[in-house]
Task: structure prediction
Amino acid sequence: MSNAIPPQFIFLLGGLLIPLFRGWVRTAYMLFLPVLAFYNYLLLEEGTYWTATVLGFDLIFGRVDRLSLIFLNVFIVITFIGIIYNSHVRSRLEHFSAFLYSGSALGVILAGDLITFFVFWELLTVGASFLLLVRKTAESLGAAVRYTLVHVLGGLVLLAGIILHIQQTGSTGFGQIGLNGLPSYLIFFGFGLNCAWPLLHSWLTDTYPESTVGGIVFMATFTTKTAIYALLRGFPGEPSLVWIGTAMATFPIFYAVIENDLRRVLAYSLINQVGFMVVGIGIGTGLAMNGSAAHVYSDILFKGLLFMAVGAVLYRTGKTKATELGGLFRSMPFTGICCIVGAASISAFPLFSGFASKSIIMSAAAEGHFTIIWLLLLFASAGVFHHAGIKIPFFAFFSHDSGIRVKEAPWNMRIAMGLAALACIAIGTFPHQTIYPLLPFEAPVYEPYTFAHVMAQSLLLIFSALAFTLLLLGGIYPSEIRSVNIDSDWLYRRGGRYFYRIFDRSLNGINAMAHKTFVAGLTGALAGFATAGPARLANLLLGGYWILTGKNAHQRDRLRTAVRINLEKGALPLGLAALVAVVILGMLFFI
Amino acid sequence: MSDSSHRPKAAKVVIALLFAACAIGFLIDFLFLSPSFDKHAVFEWENWPGFYAVFGFVACVLLVLVAKYVLRPLVMRDEDYYE
Result:
């Protein structure tokens, strides 16, 4: 229905008014915005709304179909939860940035043409960079700069692709693009960078752990999930995505096992979960892509929940490193339970949300006979339980007692975590009443709760837990060490330094050599020649004349000095100057 | 952690429950399901008794060993490496 207010503008314009309010009024106002957005989401019917023509281009701010609707739904829900979680924060800039960020994400989802899409896509980067900047530590400042630079690079590649694509097709419409020719590869790369593809992923694991306690809830949601939306829209069934997604699902779990910072462990597992979604898009059947969309919905909630739980620990203790934490369950039992619910959901335990969504992708991979992919994804499923499902709650809330005694998380954080935890259980237990009706593509109804499936998943997980326990008891489990694990961000964090050094040595070497040869050497020689040259030439020529006219050695020396001084200073008697000129002209004539 | 006398009672209970769950799960899979029950399996190995249990266990052991003995020596640096 077209008399709905565009939800993205509710966030973007509504966010501008936040500084006008203070205290509980501001919290109430900020909570009102997602409620208003959700009300307008409910008013929306499929169709195209809110169009404008700018410079001859048709801009579409409201392309509403089932695919955009499910993303709108979950984005507004997590914004509501994130605002409750973050409502104790005083920084107006942080709240504004969160609304800028989520409003841009809604704008991307609703954009019906590539130009509108690109503008909101870039605004996402602005919002996220602000959310990094507001933490105001040296680390977060560096992270914000690196985040911005990487995304500007991706954005420029995307822009180049979009311009070429529009020129080639003559249409600004954003529909299925498919991989054919340079423009589509550039667009594909631009999407892939935000999607955190392998080797393009390190902006995520590098910067997310530097964000604020609450900001990370938004960050974990919008950038990667809008990229999933873009891939679902532009490249459904692109075969290479199957392998890209499988790589994403598998390699980060190895990093997650040895990583010490718990928020960075979660960042690696975020890539792992997004990998499952990418595989679903690559398979491209209705069932598989429904699985991706369903997993977007449940992942946003359980990953948000896990980041909120670890964030609450950070808020109370100031620490996120496994080496410094442990034994917090007595101090923060509610947070601990919420963390366990999130862990069970990401691990896809029956009755928790991951079970209802990830299984669809696994099932679609099996039906498509992607045998190796299926085995690797099963490995990743066991691995995610290992590193996110057990490691996060274990090292924060149990393990050895760190001796830290703190208060339970503030009430607003508890409400937000409680809501997310309830949503995870509701989705996992009643998928047919919650997310399945929202799924966008035509496919047979999926039933996760068969006896064989529940048994299979439970066996996989409890034996993973058995492996963890035995490795830990046997002292084989890698002890947490305060360390940094280098990843592809090395390329621009340390590699940049080497790049600088190489070019410092080579280019500055060339510069120094050029200086020595041309500035100090050749110019000096030329200048010397220009001043002393005429005098020498004149003395050479006049020497013979003076001998012929019978001047003695003493007189000749005096004359020679006089000529040199006069010539160097350009102060010659007129006759002598005329003589030199005649001599030179004579030489020129003979040459 | 490996000294069992210092481990709290709750942890012992959890570990005992986990062992029990593993044993029971494995038994159910082995005795009741595998020979006759139709698992709607796509791949043949899904019907092997204990496939998921063995896979889960082996996968995690491999994951930890590779992460500890292959990846960590390659990528681990001091905490102030980037500063």
Remarks:
- Residues 495-548 of chain A form the longest helix (54 residues).
- The mean pLDDT of chain A is 90.
- The two ends of chain A are 93 Å apart (CA to CA).
